[in-house]
Amino acid sequence: MPLRDHFRPPLDDVASWEGFHGQWPANIVKQLRQLLPAGYVAAPRVHLGSQVEIDVAAYEKDDVGSVGATRSGDGRVATAVWAPAAPTVAVEAPLPDFDEYEVRVYDAKRGHRLVAAIEIVSPRNKDRPESRNAFVGKCAALLQQGVAVSIVDLVTVRHFNLYAELMTFIGQSDPTLGDPPPPIYAASCRWTVKDKRPLFEAWSHHLAIGQPLPTLPLWLSPTRVVPLDLEPGYEQACHDLWLT
After folding, report:
1. CA 53 – CA 92 distance, rounded (Å)
2. Among residues 15, 27, 84, 203, which is most buried (max CB within 10 A)?
3. Are 107 and 36 in contact (CB under 8 A)?
4. In this predicted structure, what is the pLDDT of residue 71?
5. The pTM is what?
6. 76-117: pLDDT as tens digits
């Protein structure tokens, strides 16, 4: 079935892209349940923006800055308070909102170790340099920990390719991307070892509205892989949300 544009009419008049992005990971998990070998489990993960609150009252109750104590002449203990110098930088800097729409795959037999992550890109991941840097940094960190990473980007309203930026971040390039790289795409990446040499491998696909979605390799270990067919979960999410 063809890929739809979820960010423009008529589809975004029927259901928001947020609803679709929230539904798709759950359907991928259902699909993977039929594919994953024994001992592997998958779970959806959706986190919207930065939700950080500072408990000021808790800080006020603490004796922050106490470094020692001295005894006064009447025997009472007085606390010595240390005050830091003025900060070298103090600027208003809101935390970037970082969306996460993903599926995580774990090896339950090895201490619930994370082995693969499927990242579904949102518009907020692409809208500002700091958001793009956060997404790319997260993917690079996962890869360096031996986690296979798949990136699926259907966002037609932001013309940035985060997979291309990831390749640049690790000092590599994908000659199949073209110039400029496509704004919508799907890719799987992993770091592995062959002949005692570290090797970075990637499988990338250009996406196009009206065309079917590809099948990506989902690596569970250096030698174990299952096919991640993006089409069934995508179509089921569209069906669930009345998107024809």
Report:
1. 16
2. 27
3. no
4. 57
5. 0.82
6. 656 667 888 888 887 776 665 678 899 999 999 889 999 999
Sites in the chain below the pLDDT cut of 70: 1, 49-80, 93-97
Per-residue confidence (pLDDT) for residue 35, from 0 to 100: 95
Contact call for residues 117 and 102 (beta carbons, < 8 A)? yes
Which residue do the tokens 């939700």 mark? 51
Instruction: State how far the Cα of 220 lies from the Cα of 122, in Å rounded to an integer.
Output: 25
For residue 130 the two structure tokens come to: 């700091």
The whole-number pLDDT of residue 59 equals: 38
Say if residues 79 and 66 touch (Cβ distance below 8 Å).
Answer: yes
ω into 232 cis (within 30 of 0): no
Q: Which residues contact 13 (CB under 8 A, 6 or more apart)?
A: none
Strand partners, 78: 70
List the structure tokens of 22: 């929230």
| Peptide linkage before 10 cis (omega within 30 of 0) | yes
HEC states along the chain?
CCCCCCCCCCHHHHCCHHHHHHHHHHHHHHHHHCCCCCCEEEEEEEECCCCCCCCHHHHHHCCCCEEEEEECCCCCEEEEECCCCCCCCCCCCCCCCCCEEEEEEEEHHHCCEEEEEEEECCHHHHCCHHHHHHHHHHHHHHHHCCCEEEEEECCCCCCCCHHHHHHHHCCCCCCCCCCCCCCCEEEEEEEEEECCEEEEEEEEEECCCCCCCCEEEEECCCCCEEEEEHHHHHHHHHHHCCCC
